[in-house]
């Protein structure tokens, strides 16, 4: 039996960066967004992720983006979501222009900043005591 050689990609394609807009096409039919990971930058409101085939996308959000809950963009919280810290969401398309949020979480940047600020305050206090 002969052995056939072929090359294929292993792993996941790098994240595609898209600008925040009222409609952010996560999976357009022309396949111009050829990654399952999308990074949305900028500030503004998103009302739709556009028409797409049935697909699941991981989306990285910057602070300053608002997701608007609607029939075309069903959010787990069932209301508008204001993103104030970097966050990650998982969204599924039904193939008819409707997207459903499967999972949403903050990246942890807020808690990390809070802890680092607390450590800095303690170090400042120690330095003041040592100066006495």
Brief characterization of the structure:
By secondary structure, the protein is of the alpha/beta class.
Please work out how many helical segments DSSP would assign. 1
Q: Order of helices and strands, N to C?
A: EEEEEEEEEH
How many angstroms separate the termini? Answer: 84 Å
Q: Classify the helix fraction into a percent range.
A: 10-25%
What does this structure look like?
- This protein has one helix spanning 109-131; strands at residues 16-19, 37-41, 44-46, 55-61, 65-67, 73-74, 81-83, 87-93, 99-106.
- The strands form 2 sheets. A 6-stranded mixed β-sheet has the order 1-2-4-8-9-6, with no helix packed on it.
- Helix content is 17%, strand content 32%.
- It has one domain (16-131).
- The longest helix has 23 residues, at 109-131.
- The model has no long low-confidence stretch (mean pLDDT 90).
- By secondary structure, it is an alpha/beta fold.
Protein topology:
Layout: E1 16-19, E2 37-41, E3 44-46, E4 55-61, E5 65-67, E6 73-74, E7 81-83, E8 87-93, E9 99-106, H1 109-131
Parallel strand pairs: 1-2, 2-4, 3-5, 6-9
Antiparallel strand pairs: 4-8, 5-7, 8-9
């Amino acid at each position: 039996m002969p052995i056939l050689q072929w090359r294929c990609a292993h792993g996941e394609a790098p994240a595609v960066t898209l600008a925040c807009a009222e409609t952010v096409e996560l999976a357009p039919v022309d396949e111009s967004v050829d990654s399952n990971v999308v990074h949305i930058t900028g500030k503004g409101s998103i009302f739709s992720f556009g028409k797409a085939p049935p697909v699941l996308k991981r989306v990285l959000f910057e602070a300053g983006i608002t997701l608007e809950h609607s029939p075309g963009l069903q959010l787990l919280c069932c209301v508008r979501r204001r993103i104030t810290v970097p966050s990650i969401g998982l969204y599924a398309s039904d193939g008819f222009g409707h997207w459903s949020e499967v999972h949403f979480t903050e990246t942890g940047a807020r808690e990390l900043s809070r802890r680092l600020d607390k450590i800095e305050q303690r170090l400042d206090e120690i330095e003041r005591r040592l100066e006495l």
